[in-house]
Write a structure and sequence with these properties.
The structure is a homodimer of 203-residue chains. Chain A contains 9 helices and 2 strands, in the order ααββααααααα. By secondary structure, chain A is mainly alpha-helical. A two-stranded antiparallel sheet of chain A has the order 1-2. In chain A, β1 and β2 form a beta hairpin. In chain A, α4 runs antiparallel to α5 and α6 packs across α7. The first copy, chain A, is globular, with a radius of gyration of 22 Å.
Amino acid sequence: MKISELSRASGVPVPTVKFYLREGLLPPGRRTAATQADYGPEHLNRLRIIRTLVETAGLSLTSVRKVLDALECPDVQDAIATAHDALMPATERPTEDARRVVEQLGWTVAPDSPALQELAAALDAIAAVGLHLDDDKLATYAAAAEQVAADDVARVPTAPTEDAVARVVLGTVLFEPLLLSLRKLAHQSISRRAWAAQRRGRA
Amino acid sequence: MKISELSRASGVPVPTVKFYLREGLLPPGRRTAATQADYGPEHLNRLRIIRTLVETAGLSLTSVRKVLDALECPDVQDAIATAHDALMPATERPTEDARRVVEQLGWTVAPDSPALQELAAALDAIAAVGLHLDDDKLATYAAAAEQVAADDVARVPTAPTEDAVARVVLGTVLFEPLLLSLRKLAHQSISRRAWAAQRRGRA
């Protein structure tokens, strides 16, 4: 298909498609004339992924590039690490506290894992505003995280194909907003019920 | 304390403190001379919150303002709703699918809840890249979300004080990165174990 058709099918404006081509996020089409190229379903698929990562997951172009790089990883574990890396804040933090938390949970992770940086940042932020994270609360959050992660990992086919890598990488990124929105809705649903019960108790 | 002392104590540069004062994010100090004002511990506390929201939670100034507004809510439920609102993407989406999911889970939420918008965006993103969200996976994510939310809500004192509102609002925002980083670390830990077991099985 022509670039105009690719634009229509993907919902991405032609100038933006050209920008992605220039930036190398989208591979070039098959040249059919001096100023024309032909694009296939793989271009459409790639464009849809870029659009989702930019618009819905709210990633920067730098992060999108890292996620796309992760999609090219031949190995699922490398792909997970690269995808995590794409979601990381840029600042470096000491990770002793984070490593201690992981140890306490009995988990094994690479000591230079970027997710340790993210955990360190999360712990710092919680402490900075005077919120208290006790062992019970940490255990509740860790158990929830472990449940969804176990489900994510269990669904990865044992023979990693290109499709498996894509599913792991995109799932890592795109199930985050799912989990966060469900947590917010659960907050509302549970607190509504709790306060309704309280009002009934008082009446 | 003087503005220079406030800056030192909070780690926020004086020009940034002045910017927050001009923007009304930080209430004015008690004027002691034509060009001097006195700041108290409430200013330091507020500055620490702003800094954490900007630097660690990565919120925009508009979102910070909404979270700070939520801190002023007299009612915990309003405060939760306002804090959720601060974390929302700006685009409007149809929410029928999201409402159906919430119904399927047996949760009760306000039909105009902004978190429904976020869930709708998450579902769209997952579908857009061809990932499949079946009922089992949804149930796993919902159960995890419900567990952490129940713990969050259970810790809210029944008589909502200013401090309780602050804890709910800041917890809503700042426990998000905790949950996400733990999910990533659990991914790594679980997949390491799974693949190690597989290699042992093959050997």
